[in-house]
Design a protein that fits this description.
Low-confidence stretches: 1-9, 47-67, 527-531
Largest sheet: 13 strands, antiparallel
Radius of gyration: 42 Å
Mean pLDDT: 81
Number of helices: 15
Strand content: 25-35%
Length: 634
């Protein structure tokens, strides 16, 4: 086989060709500027690839798209009629607008145009430091709705339709206009005006260009619903003060009952308040509602279980058309149920606070509230304010306490003589009564004198019973072991629930019960000695002995879930009264002097008064009739 050989010429040829190829490759290598340009170009291509490129549609495809939009619009018109216009606007979204000042924050939804969140910035839920602000409205617990009846026989609810918001300012006032449009210049409008440092805002409902859209032959119903959130520690106590309060017929006011479900109807209504214990929502109107139907439903079905809501309130009021349009100027109030704040509006809103009717409310408004405000203006502790307030009340009432005790002392001196008359005339009740009245007249003793002072104290007692639960100043104010004088002062929590008592032990009610026990033990003993048992009448001595134990027990159960401030008042009040009575008994009233005075009165000739003469004549007539009846039987 012939060996293949490479000569020198062949090697030099290959090297030359290889060198030429390398030189060409080097010359074709891109510069740095060309590399950067190529990279930028590549990025643009990639970006363009991600962005859809407009495609020129054939005329037939364009027609199909227009047809789809038209079908959608026709579908909206079929459901909403003229109000389909509002559903095509950019505002037809679940967006919200917030207006607020340093007291109140309100969030209004495009859908429905009503307030979906009302937060009170200065108040906390349940207890101080909880970090949770009081929200009167949140999470769909409230709604405002107009029932629209259109001329093409449609029935629509504004709460389901979209409003167009416009937020502006008028000086320091924030103005939010919400318009439900049926055309560019035809709409139903809600207008909210929030002022600085105010819980009340202006509100109006009006329409423009709707006379050709809405059926104005009958009024349009406004529906207002609210489920009230629980904000206090004791749901039982809080729910007791949750109710609808309303004003009607030129200044009259009333409220719904506490039954499970109750409905009230009223005419010429000027405001409706959904009152919780310490907070309230109020709708006021300049033009009275012709009628209003208000319903309250109790949502606390089991007091042993903590609940989220206390009551469900709803109202239906008709809004009258004028010239085919609606125009009502109103107000909203979302804030504390504070007597001073509400009273300053001078629109009879103070009636929302349950201070009592008649003389009881008068005492609270013109005596207790001014006195309490004066004391709290310079005394820092609200517990000390209650104690000083109680001392003043008892000092003012001490003359009545003295009169009552003096009357008992006089009756006590006459007791032996009355007992003799009872024995002497035990078979003749009429004669016994005549002789007893003669004895009272000669001695100058009025048997009713002990009852009158007790009756005079009843208005004060009831007024204070209404005053303390309504005092929002006590809310979340602490004293001693009580961290909230407007709620119970639990010192022990029980692992079980006691009917009518609860699952905790409050200390102030225990102290108040002990004080009333000793007070009744002291006064009952004197009453038993003063008033002998009348024949045919129940033995009041035995009854009072039982009441000595029953009354404190009732107070213990009744006040365990009540405001600790109220229990503090009764504890201090009864303790002071015991002290006053001990002073009267030991240092003021002298039984020997009373006895001598009675004997002196008996010795004096005493003119018979008209009342006594009339009573004597009536008894004589009754005795004569009785004698005639006996003769007739014979």
């Amino acid at each position: 086989m012939e060996e293949k050989k490479f000569d020198l010429n062949s090697i030099i040829g290959f090297a030359l060709i290889f060198g030429i190829l390398m030189w060409i490759m080097y010359q074709n290598q891109p510069t740095e500027q060309e590399v950067a340009a190529e990279k930028a170009k590549k990025e643009q291509v990639e970006k363009a690839a991600k962005t859809p490129t407009p495609v020129a549609l054939p005329i037939a495809a364009i027609a199909d798209t227009t047809k789809t939009d038209s079908l959608q619009l026709e579908k909206l018109k079929g459901a909403l009629g003229n109000f389909a216009y509002s559903a095509t606007l950019p505002s037809a979204k679940n967006n919200f607008t917030t207006i607020e000042n340093n007291l109140l924050s309100l969030k209004i939804a495009n859908k429905g145009g009503y307030i979906v969140d009302a937060t009170l910035k200065k108040f906390e839920q349940f207890e101080k430091g909880s970090g949770s602000l009081v929200k009167i409205i949140q999470e769909n617990n409230a709604s405002l709705n107009l029932k629209l009846q259109t001329k093409d026989n449609r029935s629509l609810d504004t709460k389901d339709l979209y409003f167009e918001p416009t937020l502006t300012k008028e000086g320091a006032n924030q103005v939010l206009t919400m318009r439900l449009k049926s055309a560019a210049d035809a709409y139903m409008e809600y207008r909210y005006v929030l002022k600085p440092d105010e819980y009340m805002l202006d509100f109006s409902i009006r329409s423009q260009g709707m006379n050709s859209v809405l059926n104005a032959s009958k009024p349009m119903d406004l529906e207002w619903d609210l489920q009230t959130y629980r904000n206090e520690k004791s749901v039982t106590y809080e729910n007791r003060y949750a109710e609808i309060v309303y004003e009607y017929e030129d200044g009259k006011d009333s409220y719904t009952s506490q039954s499970e479900v109750t409905t009230d109807d009223a005419e010429k209504v000027t405001y409706i308040a959904y009152k919780q214990h310490f907070f309230t929502s109020i709708l006021l109107t300049d033009t009275p509602f012709a009628t209003a139907k208000m319903t309250s439903e109790n949502l606390v079905k089991d007091e042993e279980i903590d609940t989220t809501f206390t009551k469900k309130f709803s109202s239906i009021v008709p809004l009258a058309f004028t010239g085919g349009e609606i125009n009502y100027k109103m107000n909203w109030y979302y804030g504390p149920a504070d007597y001073r704040i509400l009273n300053n509006y001078e629109r009879n809103l103070d009636e929302i606070i349950p201070l009592g009717w008649g003389i009881f409310g008068w005492i609270n408004r013109y005596v207790f509230i001014p006195t309490y405000d004066l004391l709290s203006s310079f005394i820092g502790s609200f517990g000390i304010v209650i104690i000083v307030f109680t001392i003043l009340v008892r000092l003012v009432m001490s003359p009545i306490t003295y009169k009552s005790y003096l009357s008992q002392a006089k009756m006590k001196v006459l007791r032996p003589e009355i007992a003799e008359l009872n024995e002497k005339y035990k078979n003749d009740a009429m004669k016994k009564q005549q002789e007893t009245m003669k004895l009272y007249g000669k001695a100058g003793v009025n048997p009713m004198a002990g009852c009158i002072p007790a009756l005079l104290q009843i208005p004060v007692f009831y007024a204070l019973f209404q005053f303390f639960p309504s005092a929002i100043d006590l809310r979340q104010k602490s004293f001693l072991w009580a961290n909230d004088l407007s709620s119970f002062d639990a010192v022990l929590h029980l692992p079980f629930y006691i009917p009518f008592y609860g699952n905790h032990v409050s200390l102030f009610p225990i102290l108040a019960s002990v004080a009333i026990f000793f007070y009744m033990k002291m006064t009952t003993g004197d009453q038993q000695m003063a008033a002998p048992t009348q024949e045919g009448m129940p033995d009041m001595g035995k009854i009072m002995k039982i009441m000595i134990y029953i009354s404190p027990l009732m107070m213990l159960f009744f006040f365990n879930n009540y405001a600790s401030g109220l229990s503090l008042y009764y504890f201090v009040s009864n303790t002071i009264t015991i002290g006053i009575m001990l002073v009267i008994k030991n240092y003021i009233v002298d039984n020997d002097k009373i006895h001598a005075k009675i004997q002196e009165n008996k010795a004096k000739p005493k003119a018979e008064g008209k009342f006594q003469r009339k009573m004597r004549e009536m008894m004589e007539q009754a005795e004569a009739q009785k004698a005639e009846q006996k003769k007739g039987k014979k």
